[in-house]
Amino acid sequence: MPKVTEEHRLARRQQIVAAARRCVIEQGFHKTTMAEVIRESGLSAGAVYGYFKSKEEIVAAIADDALSAVDELFQKVLATEAPLTPVAALEMALNHVVTVAERPDGDVTRVAIQAWAEALRNPAIMATAQGKYHQLRDNFEAVARRAQADGTVDPDADPRYIGQVLFGFLPGFILQRLILGDVTPETYLAGLKALFRS
Amino acid sequence: MPKVTEEHRLARRQQIVAAARRCVIEQGFHKTTMAEVIRESGLSAGAVYGYFKSKEEIVAAIADDALSAVDELFQKVLATEAPLTPVAALEMALNHVVTVAERPDGDVTRVAIQAWAEALRNPAIMATAQGKYHQLRDNFEAVARRAQADGTVDPDADPRYIGQVLFGFLPGFILQRLILGDVTPETYLAGLKALFRS
C-alpha cells in the first residue's frame, strides 16, 4: 500500500468536491449522479468512494463548502482597527461574494442557492445552513456593536436586529446578480449610501 | 357535454396549482410527479391533463404563482397619498411576505426559493423570474423616486440603485425566516430604522 499523506488526501478530496460542484452547477443536486462526479473528477470509482460513500455525502460536502464561502471574510473585516461602519463591512462582504463567485472552479453562489432550496427538505443540509448562517450573522452583529461603540449607529438599537438586516443583504445581492445580472458591489453601495445614515 | 364557465375553469386550475404547490413544498420540483399532483388534487387524471399537459407546465405555473406573490402589494403601496419613505414601503412589503407565507394553502415563499434554484438551469423559469423581478424592482425604484421627491432620500442618488437595495431586502428576509426562523417584520424594521436615514 502506498503511504498517503494528509496533504495528498485533502487535495484529492478538494478535487472531488470541485468536480461535484461543476456537476451540480450544470444539473442541480437531484440530477447529478455518482457516475458523473467520478467521470468529472478524472479519478477511479474506488478513489472517489474512498472519500465519499454516497451521493448524499458529496451533496453535504459541496453544500457545506458553498455555505462556508463567506466565513474567511470576517477575520479580515473584524481585524480592522479603523472605525468600522456597516457600509464599509458590506462593501467588503459584497466584494468578497463577487471574488468567490468568479473563482475558476465554479460559482459557489449558484450552489448556495441550490443549498437554500435543498435545506427546506433535507435535515442535514438544513443543520449545516443554520450553523453557518448563525455564525455569519453573529459576525454582522459584531459589526453592529463596533459601529455602535464608534458612534456611527444608534447605541440604543438592538444589535441582533441590525445583524439580521446586514446579513440579509447578501442573499438579495447574490440572487439579483444571478437572475437579473445587473448588480455590482458599486451599484449596491451607491444605493446603500443613499439610504444609510453612515 | 356540460357547459363549463370560465369561472369554473379558473377555480379548477387554482385547485390543481394549490395541489401541486403542496407536493412541491413537501418534495421539491424534481421528485414531484404528475400522479402525485393528480392524487393530491382529488380530480381525475383526465381533468388535470385538461389544464396541464406535462409536469413542466405545472412547474411553470406554480413558479409563476410563487414569484407573483408580491405583485398585488404595490398597487396599495404606490397608491398612498402620504409621503412614502423606504422604511414605510419595506414595512408593507415585509408584512405582505408574512401574510402570503401564512396562507393556508401552502407557504409560497418555500416555492419561491425552489424557483430561484430552478431558474439557474431552466430557461422558462429563468424568463419568468426575470420578468417578475424586474417588475418588482421597478416598483421599488418608484418608491425611491417618491422618497427623493418628498425629500427623505438624497435626490442626487440614482433611484435604480436604491431600487436594487430595497428589492434585495426581500430574499434575505424570506431566507432567514425559513432557515433561521427568528426574523419578523418587527425585528427587521427595528434594524432598518437604526441603519436608515429616514
Automatic annotation (TrEMBL), chains A, B:
Keyword field: DNA-binding, Repressor, Transcription, Transcription regulation
Protein name: TetR family transcriptional regulator
Coiled-coil region: none
GO molecular function, one term: DNA-binding transcription factor activity
Annotated HTH tetR-type domain residues: 10-70
Pfam families linked: TetR_C_6, TetR_N
Organism: Kribbella antiqua
Family matches, as InterPro entries: BetI_C, DNA-bd_HTH_TetR-type_CS, Homeodomain-like_sf, HTH-type_TetR-like_transc_reg, HTH_TetR, Tet_transcr_reg_TetR-rel_C_sf
Ranges of the DNA-binding region feature: 33-52
Top-rank lineage group of the source organism: Bacteria
